[in-house]
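Tutorial sheet, problem 5. The six components below are modelled jointly, 2004 residues in total.
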Amino acid sequence: MARPVMMFTGQWADLKLDEMAKAMRDFGFDGLELACWGDHFEVDKANAEADYCEKKREQLEKYDLQCLAISAHLVGQAVCDIIDERHKSILPPYVWGDGDPAGVNARAADEMKATARAAQKFGVDVVNGFTGSSIWHLLYSFPPVQPKMIDDGFQLFADRWNPILDVFGECGVKFALEVHPTEIAFDLYSAERALDAVGGREEFGFNFDPSHLLWQGVDPVEFIRAFPDRIYNVHIKDAIVTLNGKTGILGSHIDFGDHRRGWNFRSPGHGGVNFEEIIRALNDIGYAGPLSIEWEDSGMDRMHGAEESCQFVRDMDFAPSNVAFDAAFDKEKQ
Amino acid sequence: MARPVMMFTGQWADLKLDEMAKAMRDFGFDGLELACWGDHFEVDKANAEADYCEKKREQLEKYDLQCLAISAHLVGQAVCDIIDERHKSILPPYVWGDGDPAGVNARAADEMKATARAAQKFGVDVVNGFTGSSIWHLLYSFPPVQPKMIDDGFQLFADRWNPILDVFGECGVKFALEVHPTEIAFDLYSAERALDAVGGREEFGFNFDPSHLLWQGVDPVEFIRAFPDRIYNVHIKDAIVTLNGKTGILGSHIDFGDHRRGWNFRSPGHGGVNFEEIIRALNDIGYAGPLSIEWEDSGMDRMHGAEESCQFVRDMDFAPSNVAFDAAFDKEKQ
Amino acid sequence: MARPVMMFTGQWADLKLDEMAKAMRDFGFDGLELACWGDHFEVDKANAEADYCEKKREQLEKYDLQCLAISAHLVGQAVCDIIDERHKSILPPYVWGDGDPAGVNARAADEMKATARAAQKFGVDVVNGFTGSSIWHLLYSFPPVQPKMIDDGFQLFADRWNPILDVFGECGVKFALEVHPTEIAFDLYSAERALDAVGGREEFGFNFDPSHLLWQGVDPVEFIRAFPDRIYNVHIKDAIVTLNGKTGILGSHIDFGDHRRGWNFRSPGHGGVNFEEIIRALNDIGYAGPLSIEWEDSGMDRMHGAEESCQFVRDMDFAPSNVAFDAAFDKEKQ
Amino acid sequence: MARPVMMFTGQWADLKLDEMAKAMRDFGFDGLELACWGDHFEVDKANAEADYCEKKREQLEKYDLQCLAISAHLVGQAVCDIIDERHKSILPPYVWGDGDPAGVNARAADEMKATARAAQKFGVDVVNGFTGSSIWHLLYSFPPVQPKMIDDGFQLFADRWNPILDVFGECGVKFALEVHPTEIAFDLYSAERALDAVGGREEFGFNFDPSHLLWQGVDPVEFIRAFPDRIYNVHIKDAIVTLNGKTGILGSHIDFGDHRRGWNFRSPGHGGVNFEEIIRALNDIGYAGPLSIEWEDSGMDRMHGAEESCQFVRDMDFAPSNVAFDAAFDKEKQ
Amino acid sequence: MARPVMMFTGQWADLKLDEMAKAMRDFGFDGLELACWGDHFEVDKANAEADYCEKKREQLEKYDLQCLAISAHLVGQAVCDIIDERHKSILPPYVWGDGDPAGVNARAADEMKATARAAQKFGVDVVNGFTGSSIWHLLYSFPPVQPKMIDDGFQLFADRWNPILDVFGECGVKFALEVHPTEIAFDLYSAERALDAVGGREEFGFNFDPSHLLWQGVDPVEFIRAFPDRIYNVHIKDAIVTLNGKTGILGSHIDFGDHRRGWNFRSPGHGGVNFEEIIRALNDIGYAGPLSIEWEDSGMDRMHGAEESCQFVRDMDFAPSNVAFDAAFDKEKQ
Amino acid sequence: MARPVMMFTGQWADLKLDEMAKAMRDFGFDGLELACWGDHFEVDKANAEADYCEKKREQLEKYDLQCLAISAHLVGQAVCDIIDERHKSILPPYVWGDGDPAGVNARAADEMKATARAAQKFGVDVVNGFTGSSIWHLLYSFPPVQPKMIDDGFQLFADRWNPILDVFGECGVKFALEVHPTEIAFDLYSAERALDAVGGREEFGFNFDPSHLLWQGVDPVEFIRAFPDRIYNVHIKDAIVTLNGKTGILGSHIDFGDHRRGWNFRSPGHGGVNFEEIIRALNDIGYAGPLSIEWEDSGMDRMHGAEESCQFVRDMDFAPSNVAFDAAFDKEKQ
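Model answer (C-alpha cells):
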C-alpha cells in the first residue's frame, strides 16, 4: 500500500535531530514521527517563534523526510499520574516547576493544550502520547480495591483530559493514546472504558502499538477489530515472551533486556508480533496513515536495527485486493 | 503421605469460627490455618489473656481440628506498603490508629512481633503472611525507574522486617511470606532477591501458593526446586489463564470473577495448576507440613467448593517410594 | 446448581419408552427429553387423544422421571431441506405422504405447528429441533455461489418458519434450534444470521450442543456469550478431533466411528469439550434449565455410557458463588 | 532443482492472455499453466483449427514462457456434479446448451475427451482439472446417509470418467485431479477411494495443491507420501486457518476474504503451508515437473502477490543431495 | 469390556509370591502376570516337577487370582545381547554359568525353549519377554554404522530366535516381545523390521506397552493400528516427558526417578499416556486379553500405586458399541 | 557483530582442500575450520615438517580464508571409546595400528597431544573434537546399570584426558568438546558432569553445536547460560524433529535422511533451531569467536546449501546494544 515508513524519534533524543535525521534518511525512511523532547520538536518554541515550524519542516526536507504526527508521551504522562521523583527527569523544567504534584499535573495539562496548538501550526493532524493514570498502582486488587476507586480514576482521566481534548478539537488535531502499561488504558477492555469515559469523542483515539499488547496476551488484531475508527497512528514495535518456568510476565523488578525477564522488547520481526495479520486488519479498516517504527531492543545495536527494520516494514506492507477471484471463472467477465 | 489437609480461614472470616469449624469438620478437614482476623485468632487477646490460646485449642478440638500455622496477611501488608485508604478496612483499629502512614507502618511492625509471640504461646511454628512493598507501584518501568529505587525498596523491606524476624527467632517461629503480587516478592526472581535482602536468615521463608505464580507464567515446581529449604507452608489454591485474544493478563481493572479478565482464581482442580508435579516436588524436598486450601473461586458456591476440594487434596497427595525398582530384577535380592 | 440431568431419547427410539425409561431411572437420571418419534412422544396422538399427554406423564412418573422439553429434529429437518430419499426413512408416513418435495415441506411445517400445540398440552415450554436448510449444499463456494443464493436461503428459512413460530408464540412454547451441520445455522455466525432472519423474535432460540461446534473449531463458550438470552435448552454431548495428518475434518465420506475420520462423537467426558467452562458460562447467564445428555459414541457400549455420563454430569454441575471474597478481609464485615 | 515456476492462469482469465503473459514474464515466471477458459486455451479451436496450437505456442514464446500443462477445472466439474444454475456461469455455451442436467453432464464429458485431444496436439502431457461429484451434498451424514449412497457416487464417477480416461490413454495424456472440496476426492482417504474406483489406472492421478488440504487438517506431506507415483502436477497455493473461538472451519456461508471465516486462501508464504517439507517430499518421490502458482488471496493486490510469489517459489526450491555425509569421515574416500 | 485386570509381578520379585498375591487380591486384581524370576514362576521346576504347575495354580486360586501369561524378560534379554557384568545379576546361576558370553547366549536360548514348554504345562498361551539386541549400542550412527551392521543384527536375532519360536509353535504358545529400548525392536519401525526378520511367523508378536513408546514420541495408538493381529498381551504402564529446556530425552546417564531426567515412568494415569484412545484401538482390533499393570514409579509408594492403579484400569476399560446410532432415527426400526 | 563466518571442513574431506577452499571463498565465507583428516590439516606432517603450517596458511590466504580453530573429532573419539571395526575407517593407519583396542586408545591419546602441539604451531587457540565414551552403550539402564558403572566411565574419561589436557595447557590451546551422542557429554547435565570430572580445568570447554541438543529436547540457549565461560567455539548446524506418531526420536536404526526417522539434520535455517536466541545469548556472554557452519543435510545439494547458509549466518548475526533506552527520555541526557 506504500504507506510511509517513519521512525519515531523518542528513543533517539540523545542525538541532535540533524544527526538522527541524516542517519534515518540513509537507512531509507520516508519520515520521522518527532518526539516533543530533546531538540526534535519543542512545543514552547513552536508556539512562541513564528518560523519555528517552517524551519523544522525545512530541516526535515533537507533529508527528504516527512512528518505526519508528533508525539508527546512524556508530558502527557504527567497529566493523570501521581507525581513522584521519576517525573522530574522526563519533564521540561517549566512543566516540572517546583515539583508540587498538583501544580505539575496542571502545567502538564496546559502543555498538552499547547501541543495541540503547535501541531496545528506545524501541520500535523495527530499528536501521539500518554495520559498517565491515577489508578495504575491499584492494578492488582490487594489490599482490596473498591470499584469506586477505579471509577474515580476513569472520571479523573475524563475531567483532566476533556478540557485538553476541547483544544484538540478546536485545532482540528486528534490525540492518539498509545495504549500502554501505566496509562489509563493498557489493554483492550481498559481502552474501551477510557473511550467511554470521554463519551467516545472523536478527538480521542489510539496510537496502535502491538508490542504492549502482545506480552499481556492480548491479540493486537482484536484491538484493531474492536476500534476500527479509532486507529489514528500505528507504531511498529515488537516484543517477545520469554517465559521458561523461572521468568515471570511481571518482570521481577528486573531491567529491560535481562534474559531473566518474562518478556522484552525486540526489533521488529525479532519478536512474537504477527505483523502479517496486522497489515491485513489495517487494510480491512482502511488505515492509510504512517507505519512508524518505535525502535527498542536492549540486545541489538540500534543503528543495525534501524536500518534492518526500515526494510522489514517495507517488505511486510502490501495493498489489499481489488478483484473478486471468482470473477475470473465467470465466462461473462472473461 | 497423609499430610494433614487444612482450610485457611482467611476468606471465611465473615463467619464466626464455630460456624466455620463445624462446616469444615463435616467436610472432612483435618484442621484449620487460622487467620488473625475476625474472631478466628486474635493476636492481642492471645498475648493479653492467659487462657486464650488454650481455649482456642479447645474450641478447635471440639471439632477434631488441628491448627499448625496461623496467618497474618493483613497486618503484614501494612509493614512495607505505602499506606492509603484501602488499608483502613483491613487493619484492626489499634493498628490503623489515626491512619498516619508512618505510624501505621510502625504499629503494623509491632503487631507482627506480637504475632510471633502469640504463635509461640499458641504452639505453632509458622506464621504465614504478607510483607507489603514500597515499590510495587514501580512494577512497570515507566516513567523510567532507576535501579536504585528498586534497591531502596528491598533495603526498606530488610530494615523493617529484620527487627520483626529477630523476634520470630527468639520465639522459635518462622515467617512464611506468601509470594504474591503487591508483596516484596511476587515471583521467583523477586523471591530470590528478598531472601538475599535479609541475608538468607532462617526465620524467613515462603508460604508456597502456586496460584499466584501460575498466571504470571512461573512454573510453581521451579519455585520449589529453587527454594527447597524455605518452603515453610503450602497453600493449595488454583487459578486459570483465560486469555482469548481480548482479555489481558493484567486484568483490565476488572473485578475478580469476570470472564473478561485474562485470569481468575479457581477451586483446586478447576484451574491450570499441575498439583501432581507439585506433590512430587514436595516429596522430593521432604516437605511434611500441611496442605492448606486457600479457597477462592468467584464462580462457585463456596460450601460446594470447600467440600469438594478437601476430597481433591486427599486424593492427590501420596507418599514417595522407598524401593529401587531394579532391585526386583536382581536375583540376589529376590 | 442441581440442574436436572436428562437423557434425550432420540438415539434410543429403537427401544420402547418403558424399557428405555426403566433403564434411565436405574442409571439415576432425573428425566427424559422425549423425542417425537418411536413411541416416545407421538404428536398426532397427543393432539388427537384427550388423555395422551396425561398418560404419558403417568408413564414417566412411574419411573420418577420428569420431562421439560420435547424434541422434533426429524420433522423439523424437512421444513427447509431439499427433499430426497433420505427423508423418507426419518419422517412419519403421514408427513412423507407421496414424497413430492413441496408437499413434504408443507406437511412438515404443519407438523411443527402441531408439535407446538402438543407441547403446550403436554406442559413443556420448549421444543428442540432442526430447521433443515435449502443452502447447505452450497457450503463450499464452488462452483461460485453468488451472495444472493445465500440470502435467498435465509429468506426461505424465515418464510417457512415465521408461520410456525407464530403458532409457537400462541402456545407459549419456544423453538430451540440445535445448531448443527445441515441446518440453517451450524456455527456462531450462521446462528447470528438465522436469528436476524426471523427478526430476533423471542420464540426462536437455541438448543446449545457443544459437540457440533467443537470440531468446527468454534469455542462453545463463545456461543453462550454471544446469545446469552437465547439458550433455551442444553445438550451435553461430546466430540473429539482426531486429526493426525491423514484424517480430514470433513470426514472423507467415512461413517461415524471409524478412526480414519478427523473427528467423532464421544460419550461426555471422553472428548474435547471443556464442560467446566460451559457450566461457568451457563451460571453467568443464569441458565436454570435441564442438562440433557444426547448420548452418541460409536466406540462405547451405550448402556455403560448412559450410566457413566449421568454421574459425569452430576459431578460437573455446580452453583455459582453468592459471596464477594474480599468481604472476608474487611473488618466491618467480620 | 530448478523446477520451472509457472503461473496458473485460471484466476486471471478476465485478462487477455497477452496482457497476462507480459506481466508474468516481467515478474520472472518460466511459464504458464493455461486455463481452458477465457482466451487462454480454447479447446474447441485447438481441435478445429490446424494452427491454433502452434500459434498459441508462438504467443507464449514471444514472452519466453513455457506451458507444460493445461487446466480444465470448470468443464470437469460438470461431469459428475448435480447441475444447477451455478454451472451456467462457468461453462462455455456449447457445453451448457439448454441446461438440462443430463445433457450438460454428457456434453461436459465429451468436452473433457476433446480436451485430452487438444492437449496432445498442443504437446502437453497433463491436463489438470476437477471431476465434480454427485455426492458432495451428502458430506455430513444427516439425514442419515446409507453407505450405498456413497458407493453409488464413486461408481458414477468411475462410470463417467473411465470413457474419458480411455481417450486420455489414447492421447498419451494424464488427467490430474485437483483434490478439492466439491470433487469426488477432497482429502487423503477420498483420494484413495477415487483411485480405487478407477482401478488405479495410470491415466488418473493428482494435481497436488496443499491449500485445500491444510484447512481440513490433512498434512500435505502425508498426501505426497500416500501417492508418490500419482503426483502429476503441483500447485503452489497457500491457506491459513484463522480459528479464534468465534469463526468456524466450515466458513459460516461467508465469502472468501472475510475475517469472520475460519480459514482463507493466502499468497504463498503468507499462510500455514509448510513448503519446505513439501519440497523435500517432492524431492524424495522424484517429482521433476513444474511448480505452478495458483494465486488467490482476497486480502492482497494480485500484481504485488504474483511478483512476490514467483520469487518465493524460486527461493524455496532446491535440489536433493547426492552425497552420503559419512563418506567424508572415511579415510578411504578422502 | 471387563477385560481381566492383572498385576505383572516383575517389579515385586523381592516379595514372596504369597505375600504379593495377598496384597494384590486385597487391592482388587483379577490375576497376576507371573514373572519367571524370584519364586513367582520357576521354569526349571515347572518342567522338572510333575505337580509344580498345579500347585502354582492352587497357590493363586487361594487368592482368587488368575494367570493368563507368564513373563521371561530377563532370560530373553540374554539371547541376543552382548553379555557383560550386568547380565550376571539378572540371570539364574544355571543360565549365567561361567559367564562366557557365547555360552550365556546359548543357555539363555535353551531356557527360553524351556519357558515355552513350562507355559504349555502351566496352561498359558503367551510368554512375554525381551529378546536382547546385538546392535543396540549402534543406536546413534557415530562412528558411522554401515547398513550391513544393522542388517546383521536383525539376522542374528532371526537366527537365534527362530529355533526358540519353533518350540513355541510346537507348544501352542506365543512369544510377545515387549518393544523396549535395548531390544531388537524398540519403536514402530524397528518392530516392523523385527517381524519381517522372522518372516512374520505367527508365534512372534508383541506385548504392547505404551510407556516405552511415549517418551520416544511414538503414538502408542499408531503401534496398535500397525500390528492389529500381533498384540498378544497388553501392559498398562505410564510415563511422562519432563523436558524443560535443561533436561534431555536421553536421560543424561541419570537414574530413573530424578527430576533432572527428560522423562520418567509413572503410575498409570499420572503420566502422558492417553489410555482412552488405547482402549478404543484395542476394542477396534478385538483384543480381549488381559490389561496387565506393570507398575513402576520412582516417586510413589508402590502399595498406594498398586491399589490406585487397579481401580484406574477398571474405570478406563469399556466395551465397544453394538448399535448403529442412526438406526434410532429410522422409523422402520422403531 | 561481524563475527567471522567459517565452514567446518569435516564433511568435505572427500574434496581436496584447494577445491573446497575455492568453492567456499566464492560462496563468501571468511574462513575454514580445518578438519584433521583428508588433506585438510595433517597433524603428523604439521609436527614433522617445519613449513607445513606456514604453507597451509598460504594455501588458505590464496583464497582469502582465515582459520581460527582446527578439529580432531575422529581421533578424539578413539580415546575413550570401546574400539570396534567402525573405528578403523575413521582413524589414520598409524593410530589404528593393529587395531588392538588398548593400543588404539593409547595411540589416539598420543595423537591428541600431538594435535595440541600442531595447533600451537599453526597458531590456533582451539581444537574442537570428540572424546569418545566407554559408557555410551549403557545409555538406557537395562539390564540395570549400577551407578558405579557410570562413575567409572567419567573417571576413565578424566584419567585418559587429563594427561592430554596437560599438553593443551602447555601449548596454550583449549580443547572444545562438541557435546554429542556417543561422547562422554551429550546433553546439559552430562556436560556438567564431564566438566566436574576434570575439575573444571580451563583447558576443557565446549564446541557449542545446537543441532545435537535440539532433538534431545534440550534448549540450546540453556546450555549457553549454563556454561557462559566455556563456549570456546560455535558450530552452526540445524536439525528438525519430525515426530508424526509413527517415527521415533531414537531413529529406529534407520539411516540419516530417511523421512521415517524422528529427526534429521538440516541446513541452517531449515530446521528447528532458534538461532535468534542463540545469537542473543552469545552476545550476552561476550562470545566473539567464529560462527562455524557444520553443514549436513541429507535432503539438499551441498553446494546450494553451503552458499545459502553462508548468507543465512551473516544475516542472523548482529551486535548487542550499547545504549540504555530510557536515557533518551531523560532530559539531562538530551
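Marking note: Chain E touches chain A at residues 244-245 (CB under 8 Å). Full credit if you identified this.
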